[in-house]
Amino acid sequence: MKRMRPGLAGRALVRGLAAVLGAAALAACENTPDEPSEPPTLVERGRQIFFNETFEGNGRTCGTCHRAEDNFGLTPNFIATLPLEDPLFVAETVDALKNGFEAPAQMRAHGLIRENLDGFEDLENKFTLRGVPHVLALRTSVASPAGPRTGWSGDGAPGDGSLRAFAVGAVIQHFPKTNNRVAGVDFRLPTDEELDALEAFMLSLGRQEELTLPIAFRDPLVMRGQAIFTDNAVGRCNVCHFNAGANGDPAVFGPNPGNRNFDTGVEDLPDLPSHVTGQPVPPRDDGFGIPGDGTFNTPPLVEAADTGPFFHNNAVATIEEAVGFYNSQAFNNSPAGQLIRQATGTGIALEATQVQAVAAFLRSINALENIREATARLAEALTATDARAAEALLQTRAEIDDAIEVLSGASLSGDAVLHLREARRLSASPRVYDEAWRESVGDAIAALERARVRILAPQS
Questions:
Q1: Can you give the pLDDT at residue 24?
Q2: Which of 57, 406, 437, 438 could be a cystine partner for 10, CB 3.0 to 4.6 Å?
Q3: Domain ranges (residues) in the chain
Q4: Band of the pLDDT at 232, cuts 50, 70, 90?
Q5: What is the DSSP letter of 334?
Q6: Are 383 and 3 in contact (CB under 8 A)?
């Protein structure tokens, strides 16, 4: 396997990256082809398993539903680009899986996947339909005083609910050749070594630490949205999404509140997307527990704007609609809404312009995360094998595309978008990974930094 050795310009570039990504980036890029090849790290081993290992099942991998180029989630728009032979569609192509395994109409229309959280003994009647949650920033979002929170309800795994157990549950649920789900026949279970590697890889994805709010933004609308978000007397968003993450506010819930479950009334919205014309109405999703208690865990919001549709049932399409939900009768009549009413005397009642402002704030922090991740992937490309560099460049362009989309979708930071478009052009996959390409990567990183600077307020 070929490793790319930075030339003089490339080495100067990577030394500059140390200020952005840390000194480890510099040390990694000083490797040369003359050094002995090292065995894959646990994270790299996990990456290989995540995208390539079928566990002797129906052809699906973890990456079948958690697509790297779709923010490690799965959206209806992305599903529409896939060929019929993609393993996602085994319920349409494998006779043994055509009944009770998936709901193809809901999957294609709304990105909903069939889950049997209450057991597999009655596939026709005991199931839920849920969107595919992204697996970004898990290191910051799954810890809870009550135990790990995985999946939309927080109990999406057998056993102890950990990420390792979540992977076992995913294989049993989504990988079998038949609905009998007999281990050793319909699939094989992951080994302990594979589970360790998968856990390490998933924990490596996305942010590794929380934001610290407030952030100084250039756009007054974004600043106003942040103020509403963090004001526990107005938007109250920060109570459950402290620093726009997945954990509760320590000032409200006490030290180390972790990820928490709430019944927000999403299941009470009318016209849910799972109610597809001509298809049986699916059972109500009862949330956490067996039987469920109607609660679902709190997702992080830093990555939210480009990972819609939103909520466990993909109920709404845009980040503005997701913010606006908390004005709804469904939320304000829910147990979570009633708690807010009891604590403050009023429910949440944001005006349309305030909803727009909060959404603009969420779009902006999302774009900043896209820029951070794109910069990291470009740095990775400089030190990787040619094949891995090509993957890193693909992920870079996906991140840049997301940043462009979330900003352009609300006409935010137009000058930043121009720099993002330039960074995308410079991130094209080359025919040869040579010195000219390294210089192009350097220019792409510089363009990403210019975009970041245009989103943030000038430094005094």
A1: 40
A2: 438
A3: 43-204, 211-260+298-460
A4: confident
A5: S
A6: yes
